[in-house]
Each structure stands twice: as C-alpha cells, then as structure tokens.
Design goal:
This protein is mainly α and 197 residues long. The chain has one domain (13-192). It has helices spanning 15-41, 47-52, 54-71, 78-101, 108-133, 138-158, 173-192. Helix 4 (78-101) packs antiparallel against helix 5 (108-133). The model is unreliable at 1-9 (pLDDT under 50). The chain crosses the membrane at residues 12-35, 51-70, 82-102, 108-129, 141-162, 174-191. Keywords: Membrane, Transmembrane, Transmembrane helix.
C-alpha cells in the first residue's frame, strides 16, 4: 500500500489482472461475433443458441468487473451502482435462460424482460461512470452505455432478412461484439498508460 497516497494503491489492477479482463473481453467479442453471424447465416430460431449465448453473456459481465476495477478510483458512486445493476441483470437473465434451456416456463420472466432491463440500466450507469472517469477512452463509456439498446436496434434493423424470434436468435449480438472489442482495446490502453492520479 502506498502510505503517501492510500487511494493510489487501489487505482488500477496490475498487469495480470488487466490481462485477464482483456482476455474475457476478447473471448466475449469473438463469441458474440460467431453467435451473431451464425444467427444471420441460419436465421431460424435454434434452441442450442440459448445455451451458447451464456458464454459471451457471462464473459461480458465479467469484463464489466474489469472496467470497474480499472476506474474505481475515479468513478464515484455511479460506477459501483452500475456494476451492481449490470451484474444483477446478467445473473437474472442467465437464470432465466437456464430455465428456458431446461424447459421451465417459471423463470422466463427473468430471461426477458427483468434481466435485460436491469442489465441495460446497469450498463447505462456504468457507461456514464466510464465516460466521466476518463480512465478509459470516452467512446468506451458511450459504447458500454448504449450496447444493449444498440444490440436490440441491430436485431430490429436486420429483421427483414433475419426474422425475430422470442428466443434462439441472436443476430443483434453482433453489436455486443463491437462493444467488447472496443472495451478490450480500451483496457489494453489503460493498462499501458501511466496513471494520471
């Protein structure tokens, strides 16, 4: 711990930790791109996608922990609140999707709308905190804040060619791939840059 500046000791994760979260972002991005592309190329609903989506979805949530750790010394209360919302939404939607996979209608309300709405609100707050903190590039904050609505928007934009389904289609997930790619690059840049604090 830095005795002269105790806050500085908590400023940013070390290179190993930063590397881990860059890795979660990269794998999440690749999975979102693969799942989205597969949904576009085979536009029918497919139950196996409801299981596969859990991989990039959970990695996206894990990556947001890395975003928070990189900027927690500058994100105020909005950062932790946003992270809590995003992670709660991630876990609720995961429980809902697990129920869908197991054939239980009881948890479907968690898969939609409860989980995604809480996730969206959390991502909005975390994106605002990221933008304000200035540790990561501001465009990363904008992408984090808008990722879920833009993912839905992309799915709607592609709907004339890739029909929408209640589940089993993830063409809009391509946008989460864009966001995770930008976040990975932002985390790499933040890890290489000396702290301004």
């Amino acid at each position: 711990m830095n005795i002269m500046n105790p806050e500085r000791a908590e400023a940013a994760p070390g290179p190993g930790t930063a590397g881990f979260f860059v890795g979660t972002a990269v794998v999440s991005a690749l999975c979102w791109f693969a799942l989205g592309a597969e949904s576009v190329l085979n536009p029918g609903a497919a139950d196996f996608r409801d299981a596969l989506v859990l991989v990039p979805w959970l990695l996206l949530g894990a990556t947001m922990v890395g975003v928070h750790l990189a900027q927690r010394h500058r994100s105020g209360l909005t950062g932790p609140a946003g992270l809590a919302g995003a992670l709660s939404g991630t876990l609720l939607a995961t429980a809902g999707n697990t129920g869908l996979i197991l054939g239980s209608d009881t948890l479907l309300v968690l898969a939609f709308p409860v989980g995604p709405l809480l996730f969206s609100a959390g991502m909005l707050a975390l994106g605002i905190a990221t933008y304000r903190a200035g540790v990561l590039p501001r465009h990363a904050g904008v992408l984090i804040a808008s990722s879920q609505p833009l993912m839905v928007g992309l799915g709607l934009a592609l709907s004339p060619w890739v029909p929408l389904h209640p589940h089993g289609g993830y063409s809009g997930g391509l946008w989460h791939g864009v966001t995770m790619t930008a976040v990975a690059l932002a985390l790499v840049g933040a890890a290489r840059r000396p702290s301004r604090d």
